[in-house]
Amino acid sequence: MDKELIIRSSSEHVDFALLKDGKLIELQKDEDGNNFSVGDVFIAKIRKTVPGLNASFVNVGYEKDAFLHYHDLGPKLPSLLKFTKRVSTGKLKDFSLKNFPFEKDIDKDGKIVDALKSNQSLLVQIVKEPISTKGPRISSELSIAGRYIVLVPFSNRISISQKIEDREEKDRLKRLVKSITSGFRYYCSYSSTRQKSSRTG
């Protein structure tokens, strides 16, 4: 198996291409000067809530406030707020979620004014990059994607990609993830790419 990484750089962006046996398997582009890319995670501060929009405007360090809608808060918001506050104040030294006491989930059809207050600190993730006069769109339901797995903090569910149709393979992957993540609070999702990789060795 022959792998090759090709990098092409210009004044505006950098392209990364990963080839396997001469075939393109991954392509990424990094825009020069773009500090707010999709997937980036920030500690942000709530600037103001707008009941009419059921959303908040949030300071993430960009020239324009980011937009956070209630439906992008995620059910685990109270636990995330508690975790962020304890870490930022130094009260929580162990960043593991194994023994972290979780709060009750928020109502999926609730109101932003009941969930967030001005000047609260919150971990957020960019879901849409800033364009024109608009700041980035963000979510507080974090997900960390790797090549074969997606981790979602504050959840302990395990799911396998629907593209993996083999029942035995699905069960095997679930057992594997459980053996690795037992006692941890992460939602794990395995992709079909992982299945292909495991079968080809």
UniProtKB/TrEMBL annotation:
Signal peptide: none annotated. Residues 143-181 form the RNA-binding protein AU-1/Ribonuclease E/G domain. InterPro entries: NA-bd_OB-fold, RNA-bd_AU-1/RNase_E/G, RNase_E/G. One of its GO terms (biological process) is rRNA processing. SUPFAM superfamilies: Nucleic acid-binding proteins. The keyword Manganese does not apply. Pfam families: RNase_E_G. Its cofactor is Mg(2+). Transmembrane segments: none annotated. One of its GO terms (molecular function) is metal ion binding. GO terms for cellular component: cytoplasm. Keywords: Hydrolase, Magnesium, Metal-binding, RNA-binding. It comes from the Bacteria. This is Cytoplasmic axial filament protein CafA and ribonuclease G. It comes from Algibacter lectus.
